[in-house]
Request: fold
Amino acid sequence: MSGPGATRASAKHRSAERWQIDQPPGEVLDRAIALRDDWLGRALCTLPADRPAAEAAITELYRLVGQRAPRFVWVDSPGAAADAGLIPKMSLPQDWTAPGQSTVWPLAARLATLASTLRHTLDECFRRRLPRWPLGSFLGWQAVLTLPPRESLREGASLSEILQVTVRDTLRGTVHESLGRPQRVLLNRPAMAWYGLHEAHWVAEHDILRTLSRSRIGAATGAQLDLWIALARSCGWWWPDEDVCVVSERPAAVHAEPVPGSAHGELRLHSGKGRAIRYADGWGPCSWHGTLVPSWVIEEPTVERILAEPNAEVRRCAIERIGWDVYIDRAGLRLVSTAPDPGNPGCLLRLYDLPFQSLGSRARVLLAVNGSVERDGTRRRYGLSVPADLDDPVAAAGWSYGLTRDQYARLLRRT
Amino acid sequence: MTTTTVTLADLTRRTGLDVLDHLEQEMAIPVIDGLQAQGDLIVVPLDLARDMSAARTARWRPVPAAGVELLRGAAGGNPHTLVADPGTCRWTTDVIDPEALAIGVLETRAVAYLIHPEHGGTGIAPGAYAVRRQRERATQRPGRSRLSGGDRLVAD
Reply:
């Protein structure tokens, strides 16, 4: 074979062989998903930190950027680090043009360069071995997002395409976004922080690809990846400074639920009882089905607080927390109209005005009754926000399913 | 499955799906020839809403005895599952819906059933139907949703 075309073709062929001949793609996918779930479990870990392991890994990272071992200060939570004034301010170098590893850069910046170089090296390494997305497989991106991964594979999506969605995006969405972001918002301290177990998204992706592709990555690269893996398995957030490194314990409790409709194992924070992430000192964010909310929404929701709350999303969460029917009773909402619920004999649809603005216009809420009974024999009532220009409860119920009033009036049965 | 004598207990036996034990197990499941709702899903006969249809190039899948999971609830554990006798019902998610609420279209030659752990079971008479999700007006700015006007999907 000669010429660039032939070389490319044979490289592509080898890349396909790597996946298909000694391991069927379905098996690779199953292993990837098992490894992903294992890593998600580590990101949710609530065991006390493994302090010796964390300190050893951080010390080695310091050594790699030419710094001697720091003194370690352990705190219960990121909030505790902030309260104690332990989070170092970002300092800037004298010479912006210096190479990334030059000691004119502060330690935190050198560590960041080290990590980003590692990630770049690993990305390049695995990209050569995995067929690169997009390959324009016939299935399409939307389908890979919605179908269970094994089904996408059967329907003709490429393995790498599915891995991006079901491994990389799930890890990033769950760990970096769902777990990490609410804590970053709550902490509100711009600083060069590392996230320990909440760093698991990129660490895990590379760990999984290394395991599955049996890629030969350089010894130094592999050893450094192992350091980040050790941190993701041993401690919480940490803030490096020249002589002192502040490290947080892991959370004491984490409450998460599957993201509705996710075929890819994504999780989001949710707790109706207290902090969705709670560290030993009580610090942590509250979350209602994945929405970051102030703690009063979960701990002390009242009609007065809901009326005073300017953020519509926070209001909705607080109303859901106390229940739409309770809220409507206590808040004394103005009833616009009622109508029998088609297909739900003996039950009424009730349309109310909400006392606050929604998206710049007055919103209304439709209070409906479930078609099926709860365990205690009652039927659950639930509220749905509807456009404010609807005056007829049947039209409002129809709108919620994209139907006209007359179409919805023909509902024969609701369960 | 025959059209008259199927109970919730029959359905759970045949599919291996469970429903909550307080639901009436031995009552015959009504078969509905028209518009019906199960929680946050609605089954719309295609001749009632002519703006919806399966895509011309739709990829149809036969509905197996174990059923097809149409939608899973917010807690992750409460799916709406479509079940039918093998060879009688097919399902596609390639659906045209101007309101972007439909999750698919089913075509069934015999009675098909929609089963849910909390809502129980309901029969769908032979015919062609779109299955739509429920929406509500969002009170937050819209995200990357395909829905218009800042609406969001209801998940019960």
Notes: The longest strand of chain B covers residues 102-108. Residues 8-153 of chain B form one domain. The CA atoms of residues 31 and 139 of chain B lie 37 Å apart. The mean pLDDT of chain B is 82.
